[in-house]
Write a structure and sequence with these properties.
The chain is of the alpha/beta class and 408 residues long. It has a single domain, classed as Spore Coat Polysaccharide Biosynthesis Protein SpsA, Chain A (Alpha-Beta Complex). 40% of the residues lie in helices and 18% in strands. It contains 15 helices and 15 strands. The strands form three sheets. Strands 1, 2, 3, 4, 5, 6, 7, 8, 9, 12 and 14 form an eleven-stranded mixed β-sheet that branches. Helix 7 packs parallel to helix 11. The longest helix has 18 residues. The two termini are 23 Å apart. The structure holds guanosine-5'-diphosphate-alpha-D-mannose.
């Protein structure tokens, strides 16, 4: 892969936000590349370095009622050395869609010669593991993990941690282009290679999202939700720096990856608010506005890379209610942040009223559920509670684990 270094970096407390990076070549040629050097604006990332990262990377695929053919395509796009973790919240009644997903994953693993983990979000063992570890905020009235994409991602992150993975990447299960999935994961790895910090995150800005408009394909660049979230996050940053900025281009990036060190130390927010909240919580914890609960990490730098993919992103399109839900949740997490100034709060509230996100007689926007950093969870307790499950057995037996996840 050949990509540029961020042309512009904005520093905010301990955080370095890199501007959008362009990919010049998906494959920079055989044997190409020495290790990247900070003096070269365009970096050729060596194959062997990408593969070294893949071996240490878990790819988490959150699934809820997606077509099996789509999931199979996504699986085929994940580079072989990565550990696949599927977290499904698909219904088991009247048709057991989860067992169909298990079957499909099993066939895939048999054909390609590797193993993967699959877990249902409502698995009582997982719920008990969270409960015994004292992480009860993730459990609903029935004592099971709440619905929601973020909640599924948290389960996946815990399993990746137990598998000892250093990098954790996410890809949606509804992607029509396996080649795009592969590209995102290469970009995650490339970002980690150029990163100087063990607390880093790579967020993908889609090159375009094709739509049919007037019987022709139109390659739209920015979705309305993303534009709105980016604008609010940029205003939040500008409020403190005093300089208007457009640095945030990936406010809602569903496709993103984090080092385990960062993933385990930030807080999370429910559903689709998880991605904008990454930025908000990193600003809260490491931006230097509030006292950091993690002064040791504050002494290091937190690096955020934003890479523009080359493949168009074609996925199952949600309806207007779904789009509104994502926009509303992003607005809620920014609004309720203790670092959100009154001027931005007023702006969000006016917009929320206009869009009917809050009724005229209501004073406040709703709050999204919030989950503390996963680093607080005792891994041994968690592992004990899932020990009898197929995924728990794989994780518990580290020797099997190592062998099973070898590259064949
Ligand atoms: N485990 C689990 N649990 N997975 C879920 C759940 C859930 O409750 N809800 C949705 N998913 C899965 C979907 O099956 C899909 O694989 C992925 O999460 C994304 O959900 P979508 O509902 O398809 O989201 P989207 O495509 O409209 O939005 C995506 O892009 C946005 C940026 O434009 C998401 O990744 C958003 O998070 C992102 O902000």
């Amino acid at each position: 892969m050949r990509l540029e270094l961020p042309k512009n970096v904005e520093r905010f407390g301990a955080i370095r936000f890199g501007d959008l990076q362009k990919v010049f070549e998906l494959d920079a040629g055989p044997g190409n590349g020495s290790m990247p050097s900070a003096t070269q604006a365009i970096q050729a990332i060596p194959h062997r370095e990408l593969y070294a990262i893949f071996k240490n990377m878990a790819i988490i695929i959150p699934v809820r009622s997606e077509r099996l053919k789509l999931i199979e395509g996504v699986l085929s796009g994940v580079p072989h050395p990565c550990l696949i973790i599927v977290v499904s919240n698909s219904p088991i009644l009247p048709i057991d869609r989860f067992s169909m997903e298990q079957d499909a994953l099993n066939d895939f693993c048999n054909f390609v010669g590797k193993s993967a983990l699959i877990v249902h979000q409502k698995d009582p063992n997982i719920a008990r593991a969270f409960e015994k570890a004292g992480y009860t905020g993730i459990l609903d009235e029935q004592g099971l993990v709440y619905d929601g994409k973020a909640e599924g991602m948290l389960i996946g992150t815990m399993l990746a941690r137990l598998a000892g993975k250093k990098y954790i990447g996410f890809v949606d299960a509804d992607n029509y282009f396996p080649g795009a999935v592969e590209e995102y994961i290469r970009e995650y790895a490339a970002g980690f290679i150029i990163s100087q910090s063990k607390y880093s995150m790579v967020r993908i800005a889609w090159h375009s999202k094709p739509k049919i408009a007037e019987s022709k394909l139109f390659f739209r660049k920015w979705g309305r939700t993303t534009s709105n979230t980016n604008q609010l996050l940029n205003k939040l940053i500008a409020h403190y720096t005093g300089y208007e900025t457009e640095i945030i281009k990936t406010g809602n990036a569903g496709e993103h990856a984090l080092t385990a060190d960062l993933a385990l130390n930030i807080d999370y927010s429910a559903g689709y608010s998880i991605e904008p909240y990454h930025i908000v919580n990193i600003l809260e914890k490491f931006g230097g506005i509030l006292e950091s609960p993690l002064p040791d990490i504050m002494m290091k730098s937190i690096e955020i890379y934003q890479i523009e993919s080359r493949n168009p992103h074609l996925h199952e399109a949600g309806d207007q209610t779904h789009i509104d839900e994502m926009r509303r949740e992003a607005m809620q997490v920014i609004y309720h942040s203790p670092i959100c100034p009154d001027s931005i709060k007023r702006e969000i509230k006016t917009d929320a009223l206009k869009r009917g996100f809050i009724g005229t007689n209501k004073i406040e926007l709703d709050r999204c559920r919030n989950f503390p950093a996963l680093s607080s969870i005792d891994t041994e307790i968690f592992l004990q509670e899932i020990a009898s499950t197929p995924y728990g057995r794989l994780l518990a037996d580290r020797s099997v684990t190592r062998q099973e996840w070898r590259i064949v």
